[in-house]
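Task card 7
Instruction: Convert sequence to structure tokens.
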Amino acid sequence: MIINKVEICGVNTSKLPVLKEKEMKELLIKTRSGDTKSREKFIKGNLRLILSVIQRFNNRGENADDLFQVGCVGLIKAIDNFDLKQNVKFSTYAVPMIIGEIRRYLRDNNSIRVSRSLRDIAYKALQARDKFIRKNNKEPTISQIAKELDIPREEVVFALDAIQDPVSLFEPIYRDGGDAIYVMDQISDTKNLDENWLQDISIKEAMKKLNDREKLILNLRFFDGRTQMEVAKEIGISQAQVSRLEKTALRHMKKYM
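Output:
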């Protein structure tokens, strides 16, 4: 798969524009009012998001042009559904939409098809698993999940095995009058790379809301691996102050994540 070529679907990727945050907001507002030129400019200004996403699928042997076109569908869906009132960058919202669209394309074009009934059982099993973990703080066994769903253990095993490869974490489970609820919203999976990537984006966005001292303390503590005593010595304050500032900074970050 070649994704570093200049031309993808007739688009010269080396000359794609980069929009500033203020310009993006202005274009989005005009797009909402039906301005087609602003919509086209906004789409072109975010095509680099698609390029960054399709690089994650370079081991699938898929044609870059095909993935780029599918990614454009995801981008347009993100534009149509993005809520300007939310305090979140468009890229943070759009990336999972693009990933989800590409994964659905890969799943639907996979030679292995999973029946709807099997997927329904698998979704229920994942939800039962998440519920069990929240309640008991540990992973349930297959037998416990089967008992919760009141179905044979073999059906649970078969359903979960069937979806392991083709079902995306960004597969929508249902819509309840608003944004879709995705599989990733119902499960806890610290090893999943997509989730970690999105979490990294959220952390970076939340870090921007902190003051310089709070940023320094969190960087030293959690990125450099320093102890509170080491941080206190480096910036010239007491360990108690480091502890207090660290807790305050983490509380502030939670508001934005």
